[in-house]
Amino acid sequence: MQAFIYAKNTDNLDNFSDMIKVCKSLCNDFQLICENKRSFRELENLKRKLNGNDIVIISSLAALGLSDAQKATQLEWFINNARLLIIKSIPSTYEYNIGQPINQAVLKTVLQSVLGSSNNIAVMPKKNNSGRNRVAFPDNWDELYAKWENKEISSKQFLEESGLKKATFYNLITEYRELQEINKKYITKYGIS
Predict the structure, then answer these.
(1) Same domain as 107, residue 150
(2) Which end of the chain, C or N, has fewer beta carbons within 10 A?
(3) Same domain, 148 and 85
């Protein structure tokens, strides 16, 4: 059994230390997966490799999607595939027991709340963002970034192969480095991979 901490770059990773304590009795193998708040590629990769007893820990429903529809779709996946999902901001997903039946029942209640049929659990309000939607990392980002860091390709080649504009490229570089730093600090602090 493994526990996967799925975090967004905006999450305070120190908040997950109590979740590690909660899950320590069930498993000793923890893995941190962190990506930017607009990207869900790593979440999809994680879902593909989950086994029946694995645990996914998130900070809040916002980690599952940008809209209520996306959150509902993700919750339905965890329910339909009988996978354990612990949501830090919803203590009932872990306080009473992390067992499969209780967790699934709580997730169904959370899903009803997201779908609007229950008002028991608050849903994150939508932000009024007058700016443009932020660009997600391109699919080939990790490969191109590694080549660029090793000076195997130039910035111009990186831009051409990724299809990004110059300003977006540099904004994503900054964000990606922040994500890497977060991962590094967390791995050092908690000794997880």
Answers:
(1) no
(2) C
(3) no
pLDDT in tens, 131-175: 555 667 777 888 888 899 899 999 899 888 888 888 888 888 888
For the chain, state the CA radius of gyration. 18
Give the angle 84-178-151 at the CA atoms, nearest 5°. Answer: 115
Strand ranges for the chain from DSSP E: 2-8, 29-35, 55-58, 84-87
- Judgement on whether residues 30 and 79 belong to the same structural domain of the protein: yes
What CATH number corresponds to the domain at position 56? 3.40.50.1390
Q: Is the pTM here over 0.85, yes or no? A: no
- What confidence score (pLDDT) does residue 181 get? 75
pLDDT of residue 190: 53
The residue range of the domain holding 77 is: 2-115
